[in-house]
Amino acid sequence: MPKKITPDAELLQFIAREEPLSATLEAYPHVSRDRLKKLLARAADTIGDGATHAVEENGAFERLRVYSDGAARGNPGLSGAGAVLVEPSGQVVDRLGKFLGVQTNNYAEYMGLLIGLRRARDLGVREIEVFADSELMIRQLGGRYQVKSATLRPLYEEAVKLLNDFSRVKLVHVPREMNKAADEMSNRAIEERM
């Protein structure tokens, strides 16, 4: 049975997940957005009971969906990775973005997956469903396509290693319109240099 979360803790979790925190990052340039998110999450744990909506009594998520995407403005060009973690009920658990500098679209797609899988692992997820609009990446991970790119090979290997940490994995190629939230995060990562 999920634990109840306090309103103050829920507010801090929302800020960490949704706010760009631009003014804070400008005032404290030595602090990264990721560090700010972790500080807010720790503060939420301190004032709340540390639970989120889909957390079991032991603090681990049983199952989550990871929607991942990557964007490159030019190929290669300025790029960003995005991932959104969602409970099977549809409740968003986390939104992630990472600015990648100048990279290819395929590189950004893999990085979107990696940031989502790392976060799911950190949350103690046991079963994962991956949804991505990159047919190449999904088919490579499913063993249908070879990874010929020397640049993508280490990302692919890390993704396989992370996927092997879950007790159950499902990989699904979805149309771009079904992946809008992750696409939004990958583009936001470029615009906000997250």
Number of separate strands: 5
Strand order in the sheet with the most strands? 3-2-1-4-5
Which CATH first-tier class of the largest domain would you pick? Answer: Alpha Beta
Order of helices and strands: HHHEEEHEHHEH
- Measured on Cα atoms, how large is the radius of gyration? 17 Å
Oligomer: single chain
Count of discrete structural domains: 2
- CATH names the topology of the largest domain as Nucleotidyltransferase, domain 5
Description:
By secondary structure, the protein is α/β, with parallel strands linked by helices. It folds into two domains: 7-47, no CATH class; 63-192, 2-Layer Sandwich (Nucleotidyltransferase, domain 5). Helix content is 43%, strand content 24%. The protein has seven helices and five strands; from the N terminus they run H-H-H-E-E-E-H-E-H-H-E-H. It has helices spanning 7-18, 22-27, 33-47, 105-122, 135-141, 153-164, 180-192; strands at 63-74, 77-86, 92-103, 127-132, 168-173. A five-stranded mixed β-sheet has the order 3-2-1-4-5, with helices on both faces. The longest helix has 18 residues, at 105-122. It is globular.
Features:
5 strands, 7 helices, alpha/beta, 2 domains, Nucleotidyltransferase, domain 5, 194 residues, single chain, five-stranded mixed beta sheet
In short:
Helices cover about 45% and strands about 25% of the residues. The protein has about 190 residues and is an alpha/beta fold.
